[in-house]
Amino acid sequence: MNHSLLTLAASLTVVSGAGLAHAEEIASVNTNFRFTGSDRVTVEAYDDPLVEGVTCYVSRARTGGVKGTLGIAEDPTEASIACRQVGPIKFVQPLKQKTDVFSASMSFIFKTLHVVRIVDAKRNTLVYMTYSDRVATGSPKNSVTAVPVPAGTTIPVK
Predict the structure, then answer these.
(1) Shortest CA distance to 54 belongs to which of 91, 102, 100?
(2) Which of 64, 58, 88 is nearest to 3 (CA)?
């Protein structure tokens, strides 16, 4: 299966919903060669749908092989996040104190990757955390990053 079809298959695993960000794959590197499709680490960009000017970059392991190509493999729980101000910050609407801004399947049914936005009003900062969960048990593996909002701009909170 070629890279474009793999990207399409990965995009189709995105859990879509109102207000959730969508992934844009920036790049990937192979980590374990397989004739049926290599394991890889991808870097995906997510523009926060309610905060213009903030983009989160998530790197995560993707399982290759036949199961990975078919979208039925379980991806490892390792993920890392870095969010940055990439333009003037503008709030589309007031934000909840804590909410999912992105979710993606990491297995056929049971495992999900989450990116959560947390408002730290005291420090006028947006905190983003990534973690994964499972139907039965989640993983304590997580990563966190923060984007300070410029002085004079108050984060509107619901």
Answers:
(1) 91
(2) 64
Domain count, the chain: 1
Whether 28 is covered by a domain: the verdict is: yes
Q: Look at the block and give the residue holding tokens 């947006």.
A: 126
CB-based contacts of 156, cutoff 8 Å, min separation 6: 91, 93, 94, 95
Distance of alpha carbon 64 from alpha carbon 61, whole angstroms: 10
- Evaluate whether residue 119 is within a structural domain: yes
* pLDDT category of residue 18 using cuts at 50, 70 and 90: very low
- Residue 127 in domain: yes
Confidence (pTM): 0.72
Distance (Å, whole) CA 97 – CA 104: 21
Cβ contacts of residue 16 below 8 Å, gap of 6+? 22
